[in-house]
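A further point concerns the way the authors explain their paired sequence and structure data. An entry of this sort, consisting of the sequence and the corresponding backbone structure tokens, reads as follows:
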Amino acid sequence: MRVRFLTAAPGTRKALVAPAGAKSHNMNYKFIPRCTAETTSWFDALLAARGLTTPEARDRFLNPSLKDLHDPFLLDGMEQTVALLRSAISDGKTILVYGDYDADGVCATSILLDLLHEEGASLAYRIPSRHEEGYGLNEQAVREIADRCSLLITVDCGISNLAEVALAKSLGLTVIITDHHQPPEVLPPADVVMDPLLGSYPFPSLCGAGVALKICQAMQGIEGVEKRLDLAAIATVADVVPLLDENRIIVREGLKRLENTLRPGLRSLLRVSGTEPPLSADHLAFRLGPRLNAVGRLGDAKLGVHLLLTPDPAKAEHIAGLMENANRERQDLERRMTDEAVRQLPPVIPSPHVLIVSGEDWNPGLVGLTAGRLCERYHLPAIALSVRGEEAVGSCRSIPGVNIYRMLSACEDLLVRYGGHEQAAGLTVRTENIPALRDRLEQVISSSADPECFIPSRDYDLAVPFRTWTPESLALLDQLEPTGCGNPPPLFRLENASVQALRRVGRDGSHLKLSLLDSSGTLVEGIAFGFGDIADGSPSSLDLLYRPTVNDFRGRTAIEAQVTAINSLL
């Protein structure tokens, strides 16, 4: 496979790289003209490459503030939502909050319960069992809710439940749908359907907890937001929505509050996960989020709500311990399922456009993780299905350029149900229809997707001399935090660096320790995880993408390169 740099969005470069597991990293690059930093500082050029071209845009990005949150009443349906909630509270009617079983749904449910409890509401809540009920509303749940509640409000789900909402209305329930997933062409017949993707809301990329937080803002102002930013920050990162605009504000301010949270549950979760200040978005993505998700994947997601809302430190410690155990079990099961899925695929993938794997009684809570692993490894849309008798429940993960929700829409006649986003979706399909689904998706994707999107790619920001990196310049990079989806950590290119030394490191020798001289004669020390085989080829120079990092070892502090992509030049 050839590797090239391409221009993506204005000012942003893309490096095309071999997929994980490729046997050779000795590939050539084809270069396309790129922006330079000749008339500006490297930091100005970095900001411009990310679309921040005006002083106002840069100030808003570098100094996010709660005052920059959008007016919550710009969300279609917010006025009606607030009015219906206040009316139910004043009339003493019971409000039931219905959430999803992932970290976003658990946090969104907790946010809304916390808000409505403070407002004096009579409350109940329900999170369906992933294993017994599946995603979203279901008929039995709706009938049970109608027997004891007057108002049903969903968070992080409901936008695709047309039949269930119609049933709820026929049973006399007032129904408010709050969601952030892709709306279907026909909306459910609720009293209110509120989704940032509907109407002209200025920032349509909120997660479910972000929408719940906007309800807090509408009912209690900024004070109501501040009280629940810690929960919303976890959900925003865990649900992998772009860390831009309002999401950037939520996460940046939420991290500050999380470091000093008074919630016993969060304090216990931080402790069992070994997470200490200063906190970053990575801590939410790889420590807190997975533990909140684990209980929903393997057991009862209501434990997450109990943890986040309990005032009892002893109860919080107990639940956090259960979450830690569940997360370890999840990691073990995920490894085994992924290994089994890979064994279903041929050693060399014969240029398909979608991967579909399945297993009898695979844990439905883990199929999304398996699909994600396959998507990352092979750079193809992937679907993992848990087959149980006549039906299979699954999750999809996709690549940029393939809108998996739209692709599933073209297969609607083959599906029992489906829903999701451009890059991730869930579905239920009759087992007998799996071969037809594979054929249809292959046809739809191959005929509609740009062939270039199937070439693995990596974005990078600038090519700058390594001597640029000092403690002061690294401090400038810190201003881009929090980084993640939509605002990735800055990535730089080092061109034609002369090899001084290469050696395999790590327990199995799979990693590469390197020493290079860049074009200015600056010595570059670095590490490249997963690129150990480069050392076997004896290249004379390297072209690579990297992140500058600080290495503190035995009292010696040095700035090194953490390499993420390599082209060896013989």
Remarks:
- The first strand starts at residue 3 and ends at 7.
- Residues 1-39 have pLDDT under 50 and may be disordered.
